[in-house]
Amino acid sequence: SKNKRVHDEL
Amino acid sequence: MNPFRILGDLSHLASILVLIFNIKSTNTIEGISIKTQVLYVLVFLTRYLDLFSFRLVSFYNTIMKLFFISSSIYVVVLLQRSKTTQAVAYKTMLLTDTFKVQYILLGTLIAAFVINHKFTFVEIAWSFSVWLESVAILPQLFMLSKSGKSKSLTVHYIFALGLYRTLYIPNWIWRYHTEGVIDKIALAAGIIQTLVYSDFFYLYYKKVIKRSALNLP
Fold this sequence. Notes:
Chain A is mostly loops.
């Protein structure tokens, strides 16, 4: 899905 | 990384440096809310739990995370230290720093349990951190509105801090168009955070930007 946790952000 | 993301991170970094420089150079803690600063320690400690998984994203990412954790703890240590070195200022701070943080803590904890990407400890902690960050400035803004007067460096600190999450919003839109992914939790909390700052942004614009514009020849 398009909604997911983006792990490279702060 | 897109320009909004880089500028967002830089303004976040700048806000903390402004705050530490402010406390160090003027040797005063006047106008700073210790409640907000303790909340930020909680925000960073619960958000960057992935540091312990050792599946590191990048050198940049890790260094920034370590900086945000350590600098937020350092600010609280500086404020605590003023208990003895600036007894009067410390007492004044406690008297004006009267926002009820237990409501924000309870509200964001409930939000984290209800709205998260996965019902695991790390993901609930991450969600809690994101929701908590969106409102963590409230004790500071409350204190500012109560005291009426504000030290300009404190005001610049709040502005840079507010700008950081605001810049993350166009970053998320950019990433949605280029990568096709969007983190709806971060986006929703980011919008709330920007709304929390909006009144302050307006006052900053009126007082700081317009005044400096008027001072130009």
